Amino acid sequence: THLDTVLADNYLPDGGNLEQSFNYNHGELRELAVILDFFGDDLPPFAEKLRERIAARRAIDDGLRTPLGGLPQVGNYSDFTGTGKDTWSTPEAIDAYREYRQKAGKLPQPAPQRYLSKGYPYSGYYAMRGGWEITDPYLFFMAGRPQSGHYMHDSNSIQVAAHGRHFVVCDGAP
To answer: Three-state DSSP class for 52?
Structure first.
């Protein structure tokens, strides 16, 4: 009963969460999948709703994934703001970057989708891209509503990536 309530009250129709954060909502996605796997073939009544929520959230992750992998960093500290190192200058640099992300358990570079731009109006997330390669231009825009649990100043935030580098990211620790 409680999980039915959580699934109904905490998720938006386009797959987003009421708590607008990319730093730990992806972990929640993994936890929902673990709950579903826990039941094996003896599925409870909420299983179909749970499957729908997992699929909708994965679709958001696929649509918003940056060319370098991972999700946008608006409103959260970013580990790539100060490095300035390119990942595109040689095939070896690209391979080393991908290997680092895989070892660190981070989301990989996105798989090409049938679309270039995508909007999630309930969540307030929008991504525009020139393609699906690591060097393609990418713009993320967040126009979400303030939520009670996450009052960070990230509405109207942007993130820009191009040429295998992040150029504009959110504020955070230097």
So the answer is: helix
Tokens linked to 138: 């990418």
Q: Where are the alpha helices (DSSP H) in 10-152?
A: 25-38, 47-64, 91-103
Question: What is the tally of helices (H) and strands (E) in the chain?
Answer: 4, 5
| Residue where the block lists tokens 């009250």 | 9
pLDDT digits (tens, 9 = 90+) for 37-93: 888 888 888 888 888 988 998 888 889 988 888 888 765 544 544 445 566 677 888
Contact of 43 with 49, CB cutoff 8 Å: no
> Quick one: pLDDT at residue 81?
42
pLDDT in tens, 144-163: 766 665 555 567 778 898 88
CB 160 within 8 A of CB 171: no
Judged by DSSP in three states, 22 sits in coil
Q: Encoding tokens for residue 172? A: 């955070």
Q: How far apart are CA 79 and CA 173, in angstroms?
A: 9
Task: Answer yes or no: are the C-beta atoms of 71 and 64 closer than 8 Å.
Answer: yes
